[in-house]
Inverse folding.
């Protein structure tokens, strides 16, 4: 199952992250999971929210540059070694992973891992032919 | 007082006669050999016989950098390629370089004015001259090089960069004359101090600095930190290269070698000639060049001229320090940079022209350029790699286009100033 994620450009300037979260607060948008990839000059905030379309609109209006992309969602039992198993399948299949991150949603026993890959179709094919479980439920 | 040429102390009257003879011959030659000049003169209904003396020069049409660009590469040459023994080039406004060509006699003339310049600064045939201007298409290195050889002094053709080696050779070869950009001279002085090398270990006495504007404050700093006398050399490749004008020990303005390069000052807006003493745009006519002679070439440098007698005894007209330009050209580490060049790289790499600003600074005495580019929806990505790749591509293309490296910084949308009319694209924080 594909999970939509928004990404926002964050110039490395004091107060910038605050302005972003203020914009989301005003639009009454809730973030499920969030991370920031940082370089010395700027950061890219990546988030899955309860209303990505509303979030994008609010952020654009507040002067942020944002884009959205689809990630592959995988469910694994919340035990040691589960991520390693998934990565082995993907590596053996020759999949290029751009980035990934994981989180646990309240009320769900399993852990969720989100992957940005360069070839979604190829990845989905490889997963279907393996023991890896795609995320089936909606996050929101 | 040491003069290299009798011309340096020629009376103003004799100079005028010489200039008039040369101008008449020049106009006959360019009218016949250079289609661009024939067309310009025909458009004004001017014939070579209408030019009888130097007083008639203001009848003649101007030449601008665009003429050289429109006739790239060799359309402005007045001699056949067979007679052109060297070409040089410098930055054009976008992409294409400005090309200049020299016959053997042009090269001899150029080395002559550089030899004059060296002697004016106190060098002699016994000097050892370290030429740390860049060698190559740029006229700085080779220009000084052949002037030194003409003078009979010893040239160390080290070119620019490799500071460690510069300092080592200064100590080992004991050069008494250093030629480079003034900002590099300050940088060298700092590196020498950092290595705890006492000035007494070096033999430097004279510095001949140019290729970028510099102030009296910078001169004082260089003289103190290197223990030398510092002189200003002026030139531009379209006219010949370094050696068009040279500072003397009285530092009251650089003496223009006006037997070869006739200067005028014009109002950059009305294009009317201005009298001695008034500030305006410097225009040159190359009186004897054969390969690519130029008539009333607009330099965009702002200065004023003086024929008041100079204490050094030279009668050649003096130009005051160039304080600004009448166009938007920047000089970064001695290299000409046009904002339009940067714009063309951004348009090519970012598809949609982003809002940008150029920030120029001088850090540790070296010029820096930073191009701030606003991120827009066109090229933003959730992947750091893609943004970094784009940044690197722009930096690579800028280096290729400008010949100096520029750092690219991605900034948020709507953070760069907008204005009605012409946007202020350049912020120059250097205090020269």
């Amino acid at each position: 199952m594909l999970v939509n994620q928004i990404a926002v450009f964050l110039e490395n300037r004091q107060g910038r992250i605050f302005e972003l979260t203020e914009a989301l607060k005003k639009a009454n948008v809730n973030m499920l999971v969030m991370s920031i990839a940082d370089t010395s000059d700027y950061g890219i905030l990546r988030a899955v929210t309860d209303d990505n379309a509303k979030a994008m609109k609010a952020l654009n209006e507040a002067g942020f540059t944002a884009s959205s992309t689809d990630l592959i969602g995988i469910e694994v039992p919340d035990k040691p070694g589960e991520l390693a198993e998934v990565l082995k399948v993907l590596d053996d299949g020759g999949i290029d992973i751009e980035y990934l991150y994981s989180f646990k949603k309240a009320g769900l026993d399993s852990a969720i891992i989100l992957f940005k890959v360069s070839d979604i179709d190829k990845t989905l094919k490889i997963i279907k032919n393996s023991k890896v479980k795609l995320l089936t439920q909606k996050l929101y | 007082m040491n003069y290299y040429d009798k011309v340096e102390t020629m009376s103003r009257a004799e100079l005028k006669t010489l200039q008039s003879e040369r101008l008449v011959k020049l106009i006959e030659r360019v009218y016949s050999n250079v289609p661009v000049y024939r067309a310009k003169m025909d458009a004004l209904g001017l014939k070579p016989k209408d030019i009888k003396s130097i007083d008639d020069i203001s009848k003649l049409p101007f030449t601008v950098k665009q003429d050289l660009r429109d006739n790239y590469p060799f359309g402005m040459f007045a001699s056949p390629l067979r007679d052109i023994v060297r070409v040089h080039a410098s930055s054009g406004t976008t992409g294409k370089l400005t090309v200049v060509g020299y016959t053997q006699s042009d090269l001899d003339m150029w080395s002559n004015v550089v030899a004059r310049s060296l002697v004016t600064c106190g060098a002699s045939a016994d000097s050892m001259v370290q030429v740390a201007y860049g060698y190559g298409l740029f006229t700085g290195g080779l220009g000084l090089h052949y002037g030194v050889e003409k003078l009979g002094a010893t040239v160390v053709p080290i070119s620019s960069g490799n500071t460690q080696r510069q300092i080592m050779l200064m100590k080992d070869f004991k050069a008494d004359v250093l030629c480079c950009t003034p900002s590099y001279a300050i940088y060298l002085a700092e590196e020498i101090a950092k290595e705890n090398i006492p000035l007494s270990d070096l033999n430097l006495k004279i510095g001949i600095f140019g290729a970028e504007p510099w102030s009296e404050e910078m001169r004082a700093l260089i003289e103190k930190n290197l223990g030398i006398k510092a002189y200003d050399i002026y030139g531009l490749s379209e006219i010949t290269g370094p050696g068009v004008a040279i500072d003397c020990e009285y530092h009251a303005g650089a003496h223009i070698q006006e037997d070869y390069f006739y200067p005028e000052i014009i109002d950059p807006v009305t294009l009317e000639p201005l009298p001695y003493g008034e500030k305006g745009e410097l225009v040159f006519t190359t009186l004897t060049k054969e390969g690519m002679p130029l008539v009333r070439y607009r330099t965009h440098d702002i200065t004023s001229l003086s024929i008041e007698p100079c204490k050094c005894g030279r009668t050649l007209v003096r130009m005051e320090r160039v304080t600004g330009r009448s166009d938007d050209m920047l000089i970064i580490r001695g290299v000409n940079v046009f904002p339009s060049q940067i714009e063309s790289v951004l348009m090519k790499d970012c598809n949609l022209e982003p809002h940008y600003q150029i920030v120029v600074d001088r850090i540790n005495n070296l010029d820096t350029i930073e191009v701030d580019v606003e991120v827009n929806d066109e090229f933003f990505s959730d992947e750091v790699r893609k943004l970094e790749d784009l940044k690197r591509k722009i930096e690579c293309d800028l280096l290729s286009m400008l010949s100096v490296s520029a750092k690219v910084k991605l900034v948020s949308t709507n953070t760069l100033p907008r204005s009605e009319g012409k946007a202020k694209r350049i912020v120059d924080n250097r205090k020269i």
The first helix of chain B runs from residue 12 to 33. The first strand of chain B starts at residue 86 and ends at 90.
